Amino acid sequence: MSAYQEILTGLSDGVLTITLNRPDRLNAWTGTMQVEVETAIRKGGADDAVRCIVITGAGRGFCAGADMNGLQSIQASAGADYNATRPSAPRPQTPSELEKVFPGRFGHMFACPKPIIAAINGPCAGIGLILTLFADMRYAAAEAKFTTAFAQRGLIAEHGIAWQLPRLVGEAHALDLLFTARKFDGVEAERLGLVNKALPGSELMEFVGETARHLATQVSPRSVAIMKRQVRESYFQSYAASLEVADAEMEASFATHDFKEGVASFVERRAPAFTGK
């Protein structure tokens, strides 16, 4: 995989692992990290060898939020630095309709055709928490500490979290977490519905690895890509429109290799060999 400055990437058994790699700063988010993570996700989304993407953090943290040096620079410039021209990841000349619906820093994750898993191994705050909300599934160490952080920095619910968080945990819980900026652990995150599952930290990566390998080898990548798009599009569709899309996609599925392989592997009692076609 390509070399990066602030992330590590590795591909094994169809699983692309992206590791935020500033462990001495609890992987605090920077402009460079933003560009590199987006670039890696976009490349993974377009690579047939990648079936699933995992995002985690190096060391004992996931992402402690925006790097304080960057926040101090924005504060000193009264916000001018926030709107300054910054490098951006390469983006398609013609973005998909789904990416047009979800603009901003992390909307490309919704548009990525590959399933994305956030493995939250430690402190997860601010923009680091927002990053995880755009993953398709989230698993956390039970002892990991979470916080929205914004209200304690004089900031607001940024980068789409005001839209995302209530849809995951409900309005009452979302307002509690946003207003108070209180800390909570992975166990509570699971109870709230913010993460799919909380596990002892020593078991997290093994569990996530097994889940990612299952997605990479046991299910049709074509099916997953279409189902992911169906769910994201449904946020702005009527039931009738969603059903119409499902009927059309189901009919198209019958002519694919993966449908034939799915049936054949079941009947023949063997592992499937899906191609995504």
How would you sum up this structure, described in words?
This protein is an alpha/beta fold. Helix content is 45%, strand content 14%. It contains 12 helices and 9 strands. It has helices spanning 31-46, 68-76, 97-101, 107-111, 127-133, 161-169, 171-180, 186-192, 201-217, 221-234, 239-253, 257-267; strands at 7-12, 15-20, 52-57, 116-120, 124-125, 137-141, 145-147, 184-185, 197-199. It has a 6-stranded mixed beta sheet, with helices on both faces. Strands 5-7-8 form a 3-stranded mixed beta sheet. Strand 2, helix 1 (31-46) and strand 3 form a beta-alpha-beta unit. The longest helix is centred in the last third of the chain and has 17 residues, at 201-217. The chain is globular, with a radius of gyration of 19 Å. The relative contact order is 0.11.
Ordered list of secondary-structure elements with their pairings:
Elements: E1 7-12, E2 15-20, H1 31-46, E3 52-57, H2 68-76, H3 97-101, H4 107-111, E4 116-120, E5 124-125, H5 127-133, E6 137-141, E7 145-147, H6 161-169, H7 171-180, E8 184-185, H8 186-192, E9 197-199, H9 201-217, H10 221-234, H11 239-253, H12 257-267
Helix pairs in contact: 6-7, 10-11
